[in-house]
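Hey,

Quick one before I head out. I ran the complex with adenosine monophosphate overnight. Inputs first:
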Amino acid sequence: MRSTMQDAPLLIRDIVRHGQWMYADKQVFTATPTGVVQASFATVAERAQRLAAALTALGVRRDDRVATLMWNNQAHMEAYLAVPSMGAILHTLNVRLFADQLAYIINHAEDRVIIVDASLVPLLARIKDRIPGVAHFIVNGPIDEAPFDVLDYQALVSENEPGDHWPDLEETDAAVMCYTSGTTGDPKGVVYSHRSIWLHSLASTSANSIALSDRDRCLLVVPMFHVAAWGAVYTAFMAGSELIMPQMFLQGEPLLEMMTQLRPTTALGVPTIWNDVLRAAGGRSDVDLSSLRMILAGGAAVPRFMIEAFRERHGVDVLQGWGMTETSPLVAVSMPPAGVSPEHEIDYRVKAGRVMAGVQIRITDEDGAVLAADGVATGEFELRGPWITASYFGVDAPELFRDGWLRTGDIGTLDPHGFMVITDRAKDMIKSGGEWISSMELEATVMGHDGVFEAAVIAVADDRWQERPLCVVVRTPDSTVSAEELRAFIGPSVAKWWVPEHWSFVEAIPKTSVGKFDKRALRRLLAEGQLEVETLG
Ligand code: AMP
């Protein structure tokens, strides 16, 4: 029997209409070199209609790919709203990619139009000759001299009339695409649908996840090219949460400035950013983060010391989120369950999170057998659900799926209440004497030392044990901490045979284009003999 419910598709245009009407006065703030500019949701939505009219006039049709090469700013948000609502596909390009990767992705996705921030035009100029399929370049912001033919974003938006440019679409139509930031092989495209974005946004308003609502003002540090800004632009428009867009000002000091001046209630970003904010706040007595009800840190493991430091020094709760480009991204959030006493909340916040309604999860062993969700059995996480990808755009990758489940490549345990603990990426684990060592756990432990700013652990080949851990450390500015001291420091916290004998002290750990430790780059530095390694007896 069919239900009596109406068959209404879940479309992004209806998120836009909702925010434009219900939350017309809510504001989007954008940091610029000369100060903060702001616009209301009503204005942003109206400008999105104008942008859609302009793109239509340029010949953009249903399913055409419109790419953005932009920082987090208001114009980027307008593209987020306009492009999928008009039936085209928004393709967010990562501004930190090397020119070769960028050209590959633009050609692979068959982008027809690129909207680019003025400051990023030089990056595009380097590959202009290698992307013949792109018919139009639209530049946001003033440029002295265009190195190729460009259109002006602001002129296009003001010259075109707003109106209803939002056609009827299928909810399963493609809406947004994003390539993985994966550090192995060619990047792979994931394509989100209107439906997947709707359901992911609804889940993000749930009180068991991050509960974005019209009481929030969200500092969006996660780049809008990283998994569609973790869905936050659509969730914000749906729920009436204001947004603060930091553009390229992503270091600790300017972020602290924005937090003090604009008083966000929530902030989203990867742990390396929050570590930098802690460092910047360290010596200052004028830092006031009391407006924040929570920081969502995700995309990489969140060390215990960071959660403790935000709570103890600034009174701010850190929530951890787990997800991937392939999963829209939010799958799990580490909200402590009801009834947990305040001193035990940390035991949940350090976990990757509890799986949200809508996503099914299981762990499997190397042969694919499903393991118990008992908090003990360790295996690979596999996922199914309406905002989990079922394939990649234009490439076959059957090894990444099993019987309709996405294989995540993340290893860990699942407890009976659905909390995930990640031990490692499968490819980052260290096999020593036939047993696994978790690089992530070692990193989190070493980073708990006051004299350590960052630490990343990779495997080095070992004749006797097959592999042993090498810990690469960045000291805090005045620290002189030594390998012996760190060895003694972590001794009580990890198994004896986990304690690394190889240490290296560096100025900075290489980061991926989305700000995570780049272990592939570290392994390359090691192979090329560019890491000075100290081996303790
Ligand atoms: P990306 O697709 O670039 O967002 O990368 C996804 C990967 O980031 C996951 O497969 C995990 O390895 C890692 N990741 C994301 N969130 C967490 C977390 N909370 N803890 C540990 N690793 C994480």
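The mean pLDDT is 96.

Talk tomorrow,
K.
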